[in-house]
Amino acid sequence: MVTGRIHSTESFGTVDGPGIRYVVFTQGCPLRCRYCHNPDTWKMNGGKEITVEEIIREVKEYLPFIESSGGGITVSGGEPLLQIEFLTELFKECKKLHIHTAIDTAGSCFSRRESFLKKLEELLKYTDLILLDIKHIDREKHKNITGMDNDHILDFAKYLSDKKIPVWIRHVLVPGLTDFDPDLKRLARFLRTLTNIEKIEVLPYHKLGVYKWKTLGIPYTLEHTEPPSEERVKNAEKILNSARLRVL
Question: pTM for this one?
Answer without folding.
Answer: 0.95
